[in-house]
Write a structure and sequence with these properties.
By secondary structure, the chain is an alpha/beta fold. The chain contains 21 helices and 18 strands. Helix 1 crosses helix 2 and helix 3 packs across helix 15. Bound molecules: thiamine diphosphate (TPP). Thiamine diphosphate binds next to helix 16 and helix 18.
């Protein structure tokens, strides 16, 4: 560029000014200048090796950092490579802005219908319409992403290359979270006043996001006021960590005690939680006669997965605060001297005996099982418990999809909800490694642990180089059953041939070493000494653990999940 500024430069620098300080991507000719402009504007650029990886990294970064993620891709194949990650982000309502160069000439070999691709996976299509509107277009796209949308911003090559005339762009408006209707607050308070065993299930909408803190404090205050037990959907695992009434995850991953207590609830409130078939085990976790309440800031979410008795349109934090104020008989600005429970906590849901039982039994690792390790292969439950003990507790756990996925999700504890990254809304395998990288970039203070199956690990393998290049001291654990275990256990019982879903042994530790990891193969608990050695050493290289796991039968959660297919 000589002399005047291009639109690409103005857009990149403008986005950096708006807050795009970390950008993931793969650079080609069409996004070269805009990416450099972001960097010139102060952003950090993280190069991935595949656009799918870049998009998932940005998604995981956004979930972990609680701010919009930004991705930059080349026109055409750069965008189509990113589509699986975009679908995951859109289904998860991740605030994500994908800058997609676009070849506007319909005969260009790079041309694709960007708006059509966006619509196909539930993303929002935006565009730089002209040089004059470009900066306003980019700001609008960023604002839309901030409202928990996944946005593809098409950057036509001709518009990017045009000269930019300085234009003023209005400052972003301050947006306030929606408050619930007073009648809804009264109705929920009335139900909770009469509840004997209420249970709260907090979902994605209760996590910290778009620059706001999580709803934990307000939900706990309300739960204390009405004696509720606390659980989360899988994506919000860790939200109530440390609370004595925390049941951890509801759904397929729920421990027997958690499932028992949720099923015994007379009132269940989903807070920013869809109460879908995963979280409610196809409705089996809802006891007969239980009153169901759902609180969400998206009217389309209310009652979408199952009928609810009361649907409250409102922000989770605002609604919890308003209902607690109603229960505690307090008005605005009058919150001194709390907490004061409206109920005797010895009643109903919260008794000292129950508190003790939760402390003793609610964790999966406290549930007895028969260790099936046989000297050649390690039981994935024993492996996960050993890793939970070995790895530092300040960690971020990212989990790929597959039969194995319940083991790390339930046996590895996490410090809070930002410490768990579950990119599973699209149920794609191969996203786990990139998720761990994005989360690690957002939280370099925590040890990133990527838990993968061998299928997902090999699908996303190119990003092993990214881990090494970025110098992330990550632990990649491969639950290696030498198969697409989910399919083996799905179809095996029917006697179908399984050759298409089984593979010969692969030395994944050696593959890791080839990329620059320290690689160890684990067949017995004794082999985990190498993990201890790595933990206690300088951690100069990331660690890949190829755990050859037993796979005589499917996991408990998978058997449950198959009922949904
Ligand atoms: C992109 C994609 N392709 C295929 C599938 C279907 N699928 C679901 S689980 C699975 C097997 C995963 O194998 P692995 O990662 O080794 O984990 P395991 O099930 O063996 O524990 C497959 C192929 C999918 N979910 N996503």
């Amino acid at each position: 560029m000589t002399g005047s500024m291009r639109v690409a430069d103005a857009v990149g620098q403008g986005l950096a000014k708006l807050g795009a300080d970390t950008v993931f991507g793969v650079v080609g000719s069409g996004n070269f200048h805009v990416t450099n402009a972001l960097i010139a504007g102060g952003a950090r650029f993280v190069a991935a090796r595949h656009e799918g990886g870049a998009t998932v990294m940005a998604d995981a970064w956004a979930r972990t950092a609680g701010r919009p993620g930004v991705v930059s891709v080349h026109q055409g194949p750069g965008l189509t490579n990113a589509m699986t990650g975009i679908a995951e982000a859109a289904k998860s309502r991740t605030p994500l802005l994908l800058l997609a160069a676009e070849a506007p000439e319909i005969r260009s070999n790079f041309h694709v219908d960007v708006a059509g691709l966006a619509a196909a996976v539930g993303a929002v299509a935006e565009r730089l319409y002209s040089p004059a509107s470009a900066l306003a277009d980019a700001h609008r796209a960023y604002q839309t992403a901030l409202g928990r949308r996944t946005v593809i911003l098409a950057l036509p090559l001709n518009v990017q290359a045009a000269a930019f005339d300085t234009a003023t762009v209005p400052a972003a408006p301050r947006v306030y979270p929606p408050a619930p209707a007073p009648e809804a607050v009264t109705a929920v308070a009335a139900v909770l006043r009469g509840a004997a065993r209420p249970v709260f299930i907090a979902g994605r909408g209760a996590r910290g996001q778009a620059g706001r803190a999580s709803a934990r404090a307000e939900l706990e205050r309300l739960a204390d006021a009405c004696g509720a037990l606390l659980a989360t959907s899988a994506v919000a695992k860790g939200l109530f960590r440390g609370n004595p009434w925390n049941l951890d995850v509801s759904g397929g991953f729920a421990s027997p005690l958690a499932a028992e207590l949720i099923t015994g609830a007379d009132v269940i409130i989903g807070w920013g939680c869809s109460l879908n078939m995963w979280t409610m085990r196809h409705g089996k976790l809802i006891g007969p006669g239980a009153t169901l309440i759902q609180v969400d800031d998206d009217p389309g979410a209310l009652g979408a997965h199952r009928p609810v008795h009361i649907g409250v349109l409102g922000d989770v934090t605002e609604t919890a605060r308003a209902v607690a104020d109603a229960l505690l008989g307090r008005g605005e600005g009058d919150r001194e001297g709390e907490p004061r429970s409206v109920r005797n906590k010895e009643d109903g849901g919260r008794s000292p005996a129950l508190r003790e039982r939760i402390a003793r039994e609610v964790r999966w690792r406290d549930v007895r099982f028969t260790d099936e390790s046989d000297g050649q292969r390690i039981d994935p439950r024993a492996l996960s418990i050993a890793l939970d003990d070995l790895l530092p507790t300040e960690r971020t756990v990212a989990v790929d999809s597959g039969n194995f996925m319940g083991y790390p999700s339930m046996y590895l504890s996490v410090p809070d909800e930002a410490g768990f990254c579950f990119t599973q809304a699209f149920q794609s395998i191969g996203l786990g490694l990139a998720s761990a990288i994005g989360a690690a970039v957002a939280r370099p203070d925590r040890l990133a642990v990527a838990a993968l199956g061998d299928g997902g690990a090999l699908m996303g393998v190119s990003e092993l180089e990214t881990v090494v290049r970025l110098g992330i001291p990550m632990v990649v654990v491969v639950y290696d059953d030498e198969a697409y275990g989910a399919e083996v256990h799905h179809f095996g019982p029917d006697g179908d041939p399984l050759d298409t879903v089984r593979f010969p042994p692969a030395d994944i530790a050696a593959i890791g070493r080839g990329f620059g990891f320290e690689g160890v193969t684990v067949r017995t608990p004794g082999d985990l000494g190498a993990v201890r050695g790595w933990r206690d050493g300088p951690r100069e290289r990331p660690l890949l653990v190829d755990a050859k796991v037993t796979s005589a039968h499917g996991s408990w959660w998978l058997e449950e999940a198959f009922r949904g297919h």
